[in-house]
Write a sequence for this structure.
């Protein structure tokens, strides 16, 4: 396993990689890094695949765009297209978690010629809403439930990243704790932020690192976000309505490549995106696997690495062009 920097057409990207064979691209979410896939990179390499996990645009060792508009879904998918080409390949299987799952779904939706199969974790495919941009709908849901604002709506504020930048260690510790499967029900985050609170303050101050997060690994996260900040990552959220406007041509489009979806039973994201799970088969025309992992939370590839590795390798083995060891 090695970390290196690779220059693509439009971006200098840092990647974690290992192995040789068919390419598998692993896309992280918020607030994570390519290193969140270490267990999968090793397992895939051992099984005969070339596993590559980039730090995404605005994260870690990859370049950070100067403008908010440079974090649209077209930029994020384009980065992955460029990365596949820079690695000397023409196709791959794409795997994504959280925001990375949304990117992976859109990779398969926009470039099925390159992304020959897709494996999503934690966030299901959410088709474009024909009734209008998503933020207004999220605000309406928040108002109806009376729990406060969905954090995604709070992230639209120009200064939303500042509370994270003020204390990256606390922000990350609380994020990992609040969405972890081992955290008791009454201490988990539910995604909604009451008036006067923040994404960070709703998590108890005595939050500890989850069982799967070592102090050394956590230090890597803190160092990366202290150096790079949270503006770039949160700019992804600030493009959500813009992404809706840019993707009118994808209205009612379906993902036709082989697909899989895995989610933790206790993933708090299910409070506000779980309604899409039941309809996956309507939008993923070759859905080969949909699994709810008992007791698991949001950070599933790290919380339940062995189980995720098994499911991923089972999915890959059923595809044309599987690795010889797969």
């Amino acid at each position: 396993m090695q970390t290196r920097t690779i220059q693509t057409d439009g971006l200098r990207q840092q990647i974690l990689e290992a192995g040789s064979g068919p390419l598998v691209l692993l896309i992280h979410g918020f607030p994570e890094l390519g290193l969140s896939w270490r267990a999968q990179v090793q397992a895939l390499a051992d099984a005969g695949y070339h596993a590559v996990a980039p730090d995404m645009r605005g994260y870690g060792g990859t370049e950070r765009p100067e403008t908010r508009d440079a974090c649209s879904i077209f930029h994020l998918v384009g980065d992955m297209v460029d990365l596949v080409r820079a690695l000397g390949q023409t196709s791959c299987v794409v795997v994504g978690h959280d925001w990375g799952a949304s990117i992976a779904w859109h990779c398969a939706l926009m470039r099925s010629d390159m992304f020959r199969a897709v494996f999503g974790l934690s966030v299901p495919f959410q088709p474009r809403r024909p009734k209008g941009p998503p933020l207004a709908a999220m605000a309406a849901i928040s108002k109806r439930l009376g729990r406060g604002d969905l954090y995604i709506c709070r992230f639209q504020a120009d200064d939303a990243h500042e509370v994270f930048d003020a204390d990256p260690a606390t922000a990350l510790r609380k994020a990992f704790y609040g969405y972890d499967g081992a955290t008791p029900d009454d201490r988990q985050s539910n995604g909604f932020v009451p008036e006067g609170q923040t994404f960070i303050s709703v998590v108890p101050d005595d939050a500890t690192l989850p069982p799967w997060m070592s102090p050394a690994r956590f230090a890597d996260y803190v160092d990366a976000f202290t150096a790079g900040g949270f503006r770039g990552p949160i700019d992804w959220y600030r493009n959500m309505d813009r992404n809706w406007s840019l993707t009118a041509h994808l209205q009612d489009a379906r993902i036709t490549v082989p697909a899989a979806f895995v989610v933790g039973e206790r993933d708090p994201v299910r409070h506000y995106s779980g309604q899409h799970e039941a309809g996956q088969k309507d939008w993923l025309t070759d859905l080969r696997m949909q699994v709810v992992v008992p007791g698991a939370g949001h950070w599933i590839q790290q919380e339940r690495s062995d189980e995720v590795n098994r499911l991923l390798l089972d999915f890959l083995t059923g595809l044309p062009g599987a690795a010889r060891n797969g």
